[in-house]
């Protein structure tokens, strides 16, 4: 199997399906190896998946097919940023929060006495 970049979830599913076919494995075999219910892999690996791969299910399928992830490269999608930017709330300046000091009496009232304190 040659390494190639996968840009979409459907491309990932297609690559997993191709690997399954290259190994000549049935859906039933994948289900048994992963521990899924019968025909679940058919739903996950179909050309139009009816079930989604979560992080755990993706790892299980990768293991069953003898695959691993070599790298994940996140890139900014300018079109998606343009669609989402108006939904991102703005925040004030970031940095450490100021230290707030309180009296021992106030701390005991809010938190309760420690083991060494006697009221």
What descriptors fit this protein?
119 residues; mainly alpha; 6 helices; 44% helix; 0% strand; elongated
Fold topology:
Blueprint: H1 9-22, H2 27-34, H3 40-44, H4 55-64, H5 78-84, H6 104-111
> What percentage of the residues does DSSP assign to strands (E)?
under 5%
Structural class: mainly alpha
Alpha-carbon distance between the two ends: 72 Å
Bulk shape: elongated
Order of helices and strands, N to C?
A: HHHHHH
β-strand number: 0
Mean pLDDT: 85
Determine the oligomeric state from the structure.
Answer: single chain
Q: Rounded to an integer, what's the Rg over CA atoms?
A: 26 Å
Query: Main sheet?
Result: none
Contiguous low-pLDDT stretches (5 residues minimum) are none
| Helical content (DSSP H or I, runs of 4+) | 40-55%
Give the helix tally.
6
Summarize this entry quickly.
By secondary structure, the chain is mostly helical. The chain has helices at residues 9-22, 27-34, 40-44, 55-64, 78-84, 104-111.
Question: Can you put this structure into words, describing what you see?
Answer:
This protein has six helices and no strands. By secondary structure, it is mostly helical. It is elongated.
């Amino acid at each position: 199997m040659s390494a190639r970049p996968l840009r979409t979830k459907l491309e990932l599913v297609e690559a997993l399906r191709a690997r399954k076919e290259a190994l000549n494995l049935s859906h039933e075999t994948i289900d048994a190896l992963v521990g899924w219910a019968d025909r679940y892999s058919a739903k996950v690996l179909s050309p139009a998946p009816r079930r989604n791969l979560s992080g755990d299910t993706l790892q299980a399928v990768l293991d069953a097919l003898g695959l691993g992830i070599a790298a994940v490269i996140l890139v900014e999608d300018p079109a998606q940023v343009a669609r989402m930017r108006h939904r991102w709330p703005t925040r004030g300046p970031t940095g450490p929060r100021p230290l707030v000091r309180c009296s021992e009496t106030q701390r005991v009232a809010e938190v309760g006495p420690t083991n060494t304190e006697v009221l």
